[in-house]
């Protein structure tokens, strides 16, 4: 049996900070709610969402600093102690992932209220928690509803929107890796999930000229793609359609670089290199990233080329069960240097 769980409502529009209660009532989520936000997202939208919820709900809140197991445990404890019935996450990928895992562990629903369009975890069923003995995402449940307020998301620096493009363009190489694993290792493959995931990547390439403007239409284009990409992961039952070798490269950078860049920025650069290894048109990918002003090389990522090479050589060790173009043995230092130089990454 293959279980596909998807959000029941997706709201995309302007001025939605007072709509969380309405959605919760419609979905009969209950009286007692826990709102999670970060120190910045509390000021950006969290405080106001809380204020509106207070009109009809028993509201509790927690400030989350990062996507760590300690924060997940703190949230689970709060849910238990206060007898919380549902959670709303107001923030970036880290806050949403903490809410996703904590609500999953507590067997209650959560609403995703993204403040950035920088990652495709907004509507996905998997959560990425850094110190969970694994550097990659694990299975949880998708949000019961997604409320994407374009005005809020537009307050984020433009860099976050470009990172969202990087996280989506990476679906091109992720799906290639998935097909490879299907053919070589007999891994389960869903043509439907793969097509949906590719559609998000193709849409950002097609709409790069609109996205680069950084206006409300740009945010709408990126958010819709990120939600579809998350749904593709839910259909597949794993992050396979949106995470291949380019994500392993980004996860490796998170481990070794003194100051990693944004997740989506690193995945975008990883996609250029992995597309080259797959024999895809990597120039077209680089061109799109350049068009939306996303980083395309080590310098723009703010990461020393030495870490780029090292990340390329250790990427295959991050999640050995996920077969990719890097194979079982990964890249030699020479091959890594060559790929990074040819693609202009170093
Ligand atoms: N589960 C999944 O399927 C996926 C998960 N991910 C995960 O998501 C994370 C990346 O998410 P990302 O959003 O890039 O980064 P973070 O959630 O880590 O946020 C980065 C910073 O941006 C701030 N911020 C959030 N919204 C705004 C805003 N509107 N204006 C100004 N600053 C803002 C945050 O504030 P504050 O300090 O208040 O939080 C934080 O300081 C990674 O951990 C990655 O692994 C990525 C893709 C898929
Ligand atoms: O970032 C993701 C998809 O964009 C999730 O992938 P991981 O499972 O590699 O963490
Ligand atoms: Zn990602």
Automatic annotation (TrEMBL):
Keyword NAD: yes
Catalytic activity annotation: sn-glycerol 1-phosphate + NADP(+) = dihydroxyacetone phosphate + NADPH + H(+); sn-glycerol 1-phosphate + NAD(+) = dihydroxyacetone phosphate + NADH + H(+)
Residues of the signal peptide: none
Keyword list, A-Z: Cytoplasm, Lipid biosynthesis, Lipid metabolism, Metal-binding, NAD, NADP, Oxidoreductase, Phospholipid biosynthesis, Phospholipid metabolism, Zinc
Binding site for Zn(2+): 167, 247, 263
Name of a matching Pfam family: Fe-ADH_2
Cofactor(s), names only, from the UniProt record: Zn(2+)
Main location per the UniProt record: cytoplasm
Biological process, per Gene Ontology: glycerophospholipid metabolic process; phospholipid biosynthetic process
Record's keyword annotation contains Acetylation: no
Domain of life of the organism encoding this protein: Archaea
CDD domains documented for this protein: Gro1PDH (cd08173)
Binding site for glycerol: 120, 167, 247, 263
Gene Ontology MF annotations: glycerol-1-phosphate dehydrogenase (NAD+) activity; glycerol-1-phosphate dehydrogenase (NADP+) activity; metal ion binding
Example of a GO cellular component annotation carried by this entry: cytoplasm
Annotated localization: Cytoplasm
Record note on cofactor: Binds 1 zinc ion per subunit.
PANTHER family xrefs: GLYCEROL DEHYDROGENASE (PTHR43616), GLYCEROL DEHYDROGENASE 1 (PTHR43616:SF5)
Role summary: Catalyzes the NAD(P)H-dependent reduction of dihydroxyacetonephosphate (DHAP or glycerone phosphate) to glycerol 1-phosphate (G1P). The G1P thus generated is used as the glycerophosphate backbone of phospholipids in the cellular membranes of Archaea.
NCBIfam families on file: PRK00843.1 (NF002022)
Family to which the UniProt record says this protein belongs: Belongs to the glycerol-1-phosphate dehydrogenase family.
HAMAP family named among the record's database cross-references: G1P_dehydrogenase_A (MF_00497_A)
Protein name: Glycerol-1-phosphate dehydrogenase [NAD(P)+]
Organism for this UniProt entry: Thermococcus paralvinellae
Gene that this polypeptide is encoded by: egsA
